[in-house]
């Protein structure tokens, strides 16, 4: 994922094997889960819970402390300062701290731990209350862990070389005129075929690596992928690229907070998310870090 003015800094923070797992190169096992069908949201919060804080009392793994997990390293735009996610800078850092506040935990009552992507999603006990590192809610995963209701719906995004004329594409007609590449087996293939309907041949590649090579050799104008993948590729893998935009109304894969199976805190987290949605705070966080910060404007197909 990138290289507009912020990209070089982001790339330094984004180094590490976790990144491919979390963001999703569709050729690997875990990232491809962004293409799996959504699982049902976790059970509704109990009607007798007066607030998320009331619900959470006594239900954390350490009494009086909320333990939040993220990846090692955590990277922008999800966590800006890898060493200090508690500062709330970055999309998931901000979501996590807002949920913590709704649950009644502030300051020293919030602690952070790190987990590999695959370890957190495996069956068994957890050393955290909830984990967030772009986990897509899927039926298969929901068999062994709990998910909250969704806190973000990953849009389709289009990206390419920053100095390409394609970077100016901001309408459906402009997108249709491009030579678009997609990775085989991803949700992007169907989306491009059915929603964008390019006037030129769609270039379907075996994986993201092949699509990236085609972009670098100017065989295609741009690549369509889910936004997290686009952010990672343009930040870390291909110098001189940028995300042209995220496509309005294209989100289908939802990220959820991950908890231990049958965690008593799942219902409480849902109450917290519902409050953040109702107040508009979650929308504000999403706009700040997933639109304004990433400089990925929304492209309307209307």
Description:
This protein is 32% helix and 19% strand. With 302 residues, the chain is α/β, with parallel strands linked by helices. It has two domains: 9-154 and 253-297, Periplasmic binding protein-like II (D-Maltodextrin-Binding Protein, domain 2, 3-Layer(aba) Sandwich), CATH 3.40.190; 156-247, Periplasmic binding protein-like II (D-Maltodextrin-Binding Protein, domain 2), CATH 3.40.190. Strand 1 (66-70), helix 4 (91-102) and strand 2 form a beta-alpha-beta unit. Helix 2 runs antiparallel to helix 9. The protein is elongated and about 60 Å long. The two termini are 27 Å apart.
**What does the largest sheet look like?**
6 strands, mixed
- Secondary-structure element series: HHHEHEHEEEHEHEHEHEEHHE
Q: Spell out the CATH superfamily of the largest domain.
A: Periplasmic binding protein-like II
What is the radius of gyration?
Answer: 19 Å
Helicity, as a percent range: 25-40%
CATH topology of the largest domain: D-Maltodextrin-Binding Protein, domain 2
**Backbone shape:** elongated
The level-1 CATH class of the largest domain:
Alpha Beta
Given as residue ranges, the uncertain stretches (5+ residues, pLDDT < 50) are 1-49
**Span between N and C termini?**
27 Å
Whole-number count of domains? 2
CATH architecture of the largest domain: 3-Layer(aba) Sandwich
Structural class given helices, strands, pairing? alpha/beta
Q: What percentage of amino acids are in beta strands?
A: 15-25%
The strand count comes to 11
Strand arrangement across the biggest beta sheet = 7-6-8-5-9-11
Arithmetic mean of pLDDT: 83
């Amino acid at each position: 994922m990138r290289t507009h003015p912020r990209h070089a800094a982001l790339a330094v923070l984004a180094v590490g094997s976790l990144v491919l797992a979390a963001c999703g190169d569709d050729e690997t096992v875990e990232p491809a889960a962004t293409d799996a069908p959504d699982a049902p949201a976790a059970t509704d919060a109990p009607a007798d819970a007066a607030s998320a804080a009331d619900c959470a009392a006594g239900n954390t793994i350490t009494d009086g402390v909320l333990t939040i997990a993220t990846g090692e390293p955590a990277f922008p735009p999800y966590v800006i300062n890898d060493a200090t996610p508690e500062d709330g800078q970055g999309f998931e850092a901000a979501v996590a701290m807002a949920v913590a506040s709704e649950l009644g935990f502030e300051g020293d009552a919030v602690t952070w731990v790190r987990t590999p992507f695959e370890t957190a999603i495996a069956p068994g006990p957890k050393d955290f209350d909830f984990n967030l590192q772009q986990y897509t809610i899927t039926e298969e995963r929901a068999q062994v862990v709990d998910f909250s209701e969704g806190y973000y719906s990953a849009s389709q995004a289009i990206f390419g070389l920053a100095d390409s004329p394609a970077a100016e594409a901001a309408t459906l007609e402009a997108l249709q005129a491009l030579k678009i590449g997609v990775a085989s087996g991803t949700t992007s293939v169907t989306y491009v075929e059915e929603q964008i309907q390019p006037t030129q041949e769609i270039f379907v590649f075996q994986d993201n690596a092949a699509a990236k090579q085609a972009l670098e050799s100017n065989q295609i104008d741009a690549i369509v992928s889910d936004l997290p993948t686009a952010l990672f590729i343009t930040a870390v893998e291909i110098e001189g690229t940028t995300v042209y935009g995220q496509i309005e109304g294209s989100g289908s894969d939802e990220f959820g907070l991950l908890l231990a199976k049958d965690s008593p805190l799942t219902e409480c987290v849902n109450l917290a998310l519902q409050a953040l949605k109702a107040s508009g705070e979650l929308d504000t966080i999403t706009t700040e870090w997933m639109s304004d910060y990433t400089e990925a404007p929304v492209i309307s197909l209307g």
